[in-house]
Amino acid sequence: MSPAFTLCLVVLFGLAAIGAPIAHSMIVAAVVYLAVAGQDLGLAAEQMIQGIYDSFIILAVPLFIVAANIMNEGAISDRLLDFCKAVVGRFRGGMAQVDILVSLIFSGMSGSAVADAAGVGKVTINMMIRSGHYSPGFAGAVVAASATIGPIIPPSIPMVMYALVSDASIGYLFLGGVVPGLLMTLVMMVLTSWIAHKRDIPAEESVPLRKLPGITFGAFPALLMPVILLAGIYGGATTPTEAAAVAALYALLLAAFLYRSVTWRSLSNVFSESAKSSASVGLVIGSALIFNYIVAVENVPNSIASMLDYLDLKPLAFLLFANLLFLFLGCLLDATTIILVIIPLFIPACRALGIDLVHFGVVAVVNCMIGLITPPYGMLLFVINGATGIAVSAIVREIVPYLLALIATLLLLILFPDLTLWLPRQFGYQG
Question: Which pTM was predicted?
Answer without folding.
Answer: 0.80
